[in-house]
Amino acid sequence: MLQRYLILLFLVVSSARLFSQHQNKVDFAHADIDVQIDPNLKVVEGEVTYKLKILNRVDSVFLDARNMDFTAVRLNNRRVNYN
């Protein structure tokens, strides 16, 4: 069962990289991903830290994060508003 969740997690991370937004203003340079999987509760929890290179002036960055709940968003280690 755990193997199925690990394969699913790998596919999600891989597909996000393959089908990510193509923006000419932001370069998604790196992602540090720390997740915990609880197959009994069917829950994946964790933290993702993205490192971005801003290529041109922008006022927002969009991430496809459907069906995810966030407890905090930080920019340069400071909490920021998000929606």
Jot down its keywords.
alpha+beta, two-stranded antiparallel sheet, 83 residues, two-stranded antiparallel ribbon, 1 helix, elongated
Describe this structure in words.
This protein starts with a helix and ends with a strand. A hairpin with a 4-residue loop joins strand 1 and strand 2 (43-54). The chain has one helix and four strands, in the order αββββ. The chain has one helix at 2-18; strands spanning 26-38, 43-54, 74-75, 78-79. It has a two-stranded antiparallel ribbon with strand order 1-2. A two-stranded antiparallel sheet has the order 3-4. It is 20% helix and 35% strand. With 83 residues, it is an alpha+beta fold.
